[in-house]
Amino acid sequence: MAGSRRGKSGMSSGGAGNADRQLARAEIGRLRKLLRAADLAYYQRDAPEMSDARYDEAKRRLAALERAHPELSTPDSPTRTVGAPPREGFARVRHEQAMLSLANAFDARDVRDFDERIRRFLGLGDQVVTYTAEPKIDGLSLSLRYERGVLVMAATRGDGEVGEDVTANARTIADIPQRLTGAPDILEVRGEVYMTHAEFAALNAAQDQAGAPRFANPRNAAAGSLRQLDPEVTRARPLCFFAYAWGVVSAPLGRTQMEALERFAQLGFSTNPLTRLCRGPDALLAHYGVIEQQRAELGYDIDGVVYKVNDLDWQRRLGFRATTPRWAIAHKFPAETAWTRLERIDIQVGRTGALSPVARLKPVTVGGVVVSNATLHNEDYIAGRSADGTPIRDGKDIREGDWVKIYRAGDVIPKVADVDLARRPADARPYVFPTKCPECGSDALREEGDSVRRCQGGMFCPAQAMERLRHFVSRPAFDIVGLGSRQVETFYLLGWIREPADIFTLQARDSAGEKTLVTLDEVLQRIGRSGAPEAQRRELAGLLGLERFAPETARAAYLERSRMPLGRQHGWGEKSAARLFAAIERRRRIELDRLIFALGIRHVGEAAARLLALHYRDWAAFETALSGAVPGTGAQWDELVNIDGVGDVMARALVTAFHQPGERALIDRLVAQLTQVIPAEPPAADASPIAGRTIVFTGTLERMTRAEAKARAEALGARVAGSVSRRTDLVVAGPGAGSKAKKAAELGIETLDEDGWLKLIDGK
Ligand code: IVH
Question: Hey, where are the domains in the chain?
Answer without folding.
Answer: 2-81, 94-332, 337-423, 480-586, 694-762
